Amino acid sequence: xxxxxxxxxxxxxxRTGDRLGRGPAVTSARTRATEPRTSTADRVVQSVxxxxxxxxxxxxxxxxxxxxxxxxxxxxxxxxxRLCPKGSASEQLVNSPxxxxxxxxxxxxGTDWExxxxxxxxxxxxxxxxxxxxRTWVDRDEQGRRLRRTMGIASLGGATLDxxxxxxxxxxxxxxxxxxxxxxxxx
Length: 187
Description:
The protein is of the alpha+beta class. The chain folds into 3 domains: about 1-35, no CATH class; about 35-95, Single Sheet (N-terminal domain of TfIIb); about 105-185, no CATH class. It has helices spanning about 10-15, 30-35, 85-90, 90-95, 120-135, 165-175; strands at about 45-50, 55-65, 65-70, 105, 115, 135-140, 145-155, 180-185. It is elongated. The termini are far apart.
């Protein structure tokens, strides 16, 4: 079944007075019937964009416990409702079918990633951290000056963390005696 000539876009433009074709004359019935995903959401949750250290505010629209849309939060004093292209696309990060949802581990010399229990992974990291700290700790230098440091532990933070998280990481690694602490945003 074809479209009536009266419904052709150019005819609608002339018939409705929308001579430039920028108004209702160029919208189809399907477009007029389309609802934004934000209007069907069950709830809206405020969050912060995960991509860089700016900390742009986000409004996350949730329907049936699934993220359906993410927009800038107009009440955010940092971003005032704006998001960069990556922030605007963060819904894809959440809903990607290829997103890992479990801890993966590759054994030394291995070629494949294997699933690992989260608690076991945390224990593995803690054990390695403490072992390296113990083995590489330098309390004093050759002249007997107090150093209290380790050169075996370093930290390279990412810009997806906000200022508060980076502050806590810096405090943690400094307290552990690490002196090689950097953030990729500065490199």
